[in-house]
Every structure is written in C-alpha cells, then in structure tokens.
Amino acid sequence: MYGDGGYREAYLADAIRFKMKRDQKRFWAGDNISDYVTEEMKHKLIDEATEAFELVLDRLLIDRETDPNSQGTARRLAKMYFNEIMSGRYEPTPCATAFPNDSEERYEGMLVVRSELRSMCSHHHQPVNGVAYIGIIAAEKLIGLSKYTRIAQWCARRGTLQEELCNDIAREIMRATGAKDVGVYVQATHGCCENRGIMAHSSLTQTTVLKGAFKDDVGTKKEFFDNIKLQQDFAPR
Ligand SMILES: [Zn+2]
C-alpha cells in the first residue's frame, strides 16, 4: 500500500489485521481467528512478535544482551503466546466426530464432564486456573468424552473473562453436539487478583451458564448441581 508518505505494510500481522477489519471480523483477545492465520504464517508472526517483545524488554530496561536469563526471553514469550497460552485463538475448532444416538437404546440421561482449564485474563494477561463442569442431556448425536475437555480447553486458551469463557464453552458444546440442554459451571482462581491489585490469597470465582432444560427445569438444574457436588467430593479442589 503506497500513498501514505511511502508507508507500506511490512508486517504480516498488519496485513492480517487490515484484512480482518475490511471483513469486519472481530479479533478481540477471546476470539478465534484461525480463518485468517495458517500454520505457515505462524512462523512469521512469531518472528514479528519476538521483535516486538524485544522492544518491550528494552523499554523495561532489562538487559537482554548480558543477562543470561533474559536472552531468548522475547522469542520464548512470542512462542508461548502463539503455541500455548493463546493457542485457542489461532487453532481451528477441534474436530469432534459425532456418533448417532438415535437407536431405541439411546442414552437419555445427563452427562457431566469435569474439565481442567488453564486460561488467561484479557485485562492483565495473568493466569486463570480452574475447572469446568459441563452438563448435557444427549441429543441425537454423541461426541467422545475427551472432546468435551478438548473443546473447553480450546475456548480457554485465549485471553478471556470468566463470564465470556463460560458462554463460549456452552455455545461450542451446543454446536458440536446439537444439544439444546447444556449447563456449564466454571470455578477458577485468578492470577490478577492474587499476584497484583488486592493480592487476595483466594480469588475463587464461580460462573454458571444454563441453557434449555438446565435453565427451565428445576429437577434438571438440581441434578446438575448434585452431580457437580459428587464430582467435587471425589476430586476436591
Ligand atoms: Zn485481570
């Protein structure tokens, strides 16, 4: 792009941002942008983020040239963001093969899966550690048990707010299973309350999203929370 005083888009990240803006694609910290970022692009993006993190370290007056612990930190940070703590932004939806659940002996009960979560708050980029309890009344399709956790972790590996995360998990589980009756309960501790700010020793926060029967039917709701209690007694946190 010429014209703006010779300005040219030299960075791949800028070109991708331009494209997303043009398409009116939202790219908030908790959004998945895998349609715009291929595996090959990631290497270039990691190089560009490394350069930017080097600048951050320089501005923080950290000697990344002679401090052996700070050498390579910029690249480690860039890789960690793309491949680990924010990987759920860049990776496509985990494929969850659905099996039919429409025979006469179909499972009609409630299923409650407990999934460990590691996430990060969008505000301070501090760790959020917790667990999601995903409840579902099976519809016509079933997905493998491990897929619930894969989907929950894919939603969590981004910059999130716990309230948003809870909504995201419910939405993606509904999408993958076609179920309308879904409940998600997330319990997590927040680094941004423990490591800074109020320095609370316990920042346990709970959020719940209830859909369909989980919301409207008192019995279903009670069964969900009773199941969570049973799980917590079995694996206390
Ligand atoms: Zn925070």
Task: Give a brief outline of the structure.
By secondary structure, the protein is an alpha+beta fold. It contains nine helices and seven strands.
Helical percentage: 40-55%
Structural class: alpha+beta
Number of helices: 9
Side-by-side strand order of the widest sheet:
5-2-3-6-7
Q: Order of helices and strands, N to C?
A: HHHHEEEEHEHEHEHH
Tell me the major beta sheet.
Answer: 5 strands, mixed
**Distance between the ends:** 54 Å
Looking at this protein, list some descriptive labels.
binds zinc ion; 19% strand; two-stranded antiparallel ribbon; 5-stranded mixed beta sheet; 43% helix; 7 strands; alpha+beta; 237 residues; 9 helices
Q: Can you offer a commentary on this structure?
A:
By secondary structure, the protein is an alpha+beta fold. It has helices at residues 12-22, 39-59, 73-85, 87-90, 145-156, 162-177, 191-194, 213-216, 218-234, and strands at 98-100, 110-121, 127-137, 141-143, 159-160, 182-190, 205-210. A five-stranded mixed β-sheet has the order 5-2-3-6-7. The chain is globular. The model is unreliable at 1-7 (pLDDT under 50). Zinc ion (ZN) binds next to loops.
